[in-house]
């Protein structure tokens, strides 16, 4: 997928909004709120993105959405939640009700270190301190893809704020797939996988196959994980739970 390295970063911002309603962890590339803190690429975490098997593709709820059960790393203490990078280590998490909850970045330096990019800063996004790309003009928010270039962002309060996709064509181009469409999710135009039936939503892993989705208004709407076994299978990690 053309955007794959960069979209890991975008997933974390999506969980910022998701986390406000669901209360657990940070989203990873499979659309869960798993707390492995996976990050990468130069893409700003300044707007949600569909990862092919990702959170928006999964129809993940934004700040105003309903709570869904999601794959999350289990814990005894916050040390169990560390992903080993500055913005995603033990002091960025709490262990709440035996699951990892991302509390946000602490400093600009953490973000610069985690993303190996001096442009990254720590700013509140939907109430959660988040690593975002700083900017002085919207031209700095062009990430070289149709759904993630200057007409999809604003430079707001010194960081790149994602305003959403503009049309289906942008999504098809960015995700190199004719199945992607631009639809409003909790008020934000978002690239999501289109569907005519729920079978189109099978993403090939236990927590993201047909029994985890509905085909709603022509796009794949994630209904949540069903049990811990799905999460452990999907992430190949026995520490994952479905909460």
Chart the SSEs and their pairings:
Layout lengths: L3 H19 L48 E3 L19 E4 L2 E4 L5 H7 L5 E6 L2 E6 L19 E4 L2 E4 L5 H7 L5 E6 L2 E6 L19 E4 L2 E4 L5 H8 L4 E3 L1
Antiparallel strand pairs: 1-12, 2-3, 4-5, 6-7, 8-9, 10-11
Question: What distinguishing features does this structure have?
Answer:
single chain, 243 residues, alpha+beta, two-stranded antiparallel sheet, flat
What is the 3D shape?
flat
Q: Give the class from helix and strand content and strand pairing.
A: alpha+beta
Q: List the total number of helices.
A: 4
Instruction: Describe the largest sheet.
Output: 2 strands, antiparallel
Mean pLDDT: 79
Strand order of the largest sheet: 1-12
Q: What is the H/E string?
A: HEEEHEEEEHEEEEHE
Radius of gyration: 16 Å
Task: Give the end-to-end Cα distance, rounded to a whole number of Å.
Answer: 29 Å
Low-confidence parts, pLDDT < 50 over ≥5 residues?
1-64
Quote the beta fraction: 15-25%
User: How many strands in all?
Assistant: 12
């Amino acid at each position: 997928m053309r955007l794959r390295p960069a979209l890991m970063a975008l997933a974390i911002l999506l969980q910022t909004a998701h986390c406000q309603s669901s209360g657990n962890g940070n989203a990873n590339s499979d659309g869960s709120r798993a707390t492995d803190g996976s990050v990468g690429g130069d893409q700003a975490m300044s707007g949600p993105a569909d990862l092919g098997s990702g959170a928006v593709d999964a129809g993940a709820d934004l700040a105003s959405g309903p709570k869904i059960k999601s794959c999350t790393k289990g814990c005894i203490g916050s040390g169990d939640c560390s992903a080993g990078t500055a913005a995603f280590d033990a002091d960025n998490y709490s262990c709440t009700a035996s699951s990892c909850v991302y509390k946000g970045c602490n400093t600009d330096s953490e973000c610069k270190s985690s993303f190996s990019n001096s442009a990254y800063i720590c700013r509140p996004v939907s109430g959660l301190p988040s690593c975002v790309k700083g900017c002085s003009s919207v031209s700095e928010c062009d990430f070289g893809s149709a759904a993630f270039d200057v007409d999809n962002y604003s430079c707001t309060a010194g960081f790149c704020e994602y305003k959403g996709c503009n049309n289906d064509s942008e999504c098809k181009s960015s995700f190199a797939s004719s199945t992607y469409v631009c639809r409003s999710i909790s008020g934000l135009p978002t690239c999501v996988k289109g569907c005519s039936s729920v079978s189109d939503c099978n993403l090939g892993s236990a927590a993201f196959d047909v029994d985890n989705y509905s085909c709603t208004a022509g796009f794949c709407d994630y209904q949540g994980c069903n049990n811990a076994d799905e999460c452990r299978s999907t992430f190949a990690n026995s520490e994952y739970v479905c909460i």
